[in-house]
Amino acid sequence: MSGAEKQAVIRDFKDAVNMSPQELTRWLEAAESKEVGYKTSQGDESVGHASGRRIIELLGKQEADFSDDDVQHARKVLGYIHRHMAQRPDGDITDTPWRYSLMNWGHDPQVKGG
To answer: N or C: which terminal CB in the chain sees fewer CB atoms within 10 Å?
Structure first.
């Protein structure tokens, strides 16, 4: 991956993730956060919840400190957010599993620009 491609992924990731590390940390502690998402056979934490913890780490990094694995995770986050946003349900999304799942991935669709 070229330096320009890496920069573009990181920029897009930081644009798509519209929750601060503090907001995401608080959210991941909420019962609603732990109740949504696909859970693997390895445990009771959903894939999105685990991703949220990794996203907090990535938000604290400078671009130069992103490893190839970090960039791959940023790409995974972008893919999830874009796919999930395309499935927006009708009506009020405030208290929906759809919104809660996106929030586990660092994106709150009710934030301006969401």
So the answer is: N
Number of domains in the chain: 1
Helix (H) or strand (E) holding 42: none
Task: Please say whether the beta carbons of 62 and 73 come within 8 A.
Answer: no
pLDDT in tens, 12-56: 999 999 999 999 999 999 999 998 888 877 777 888 899 999 999
111 within a domain of the structure (yes/no): no
Gap between the Cα atoms of 114 and 107, Å rounded: 7
CB 102 within 8 A of CB 13: no
Could you list the residue range(s) of the whole structural domain that residue 57 is in? Answer: 3-104
Matching residue, tokens 């009020």: 92
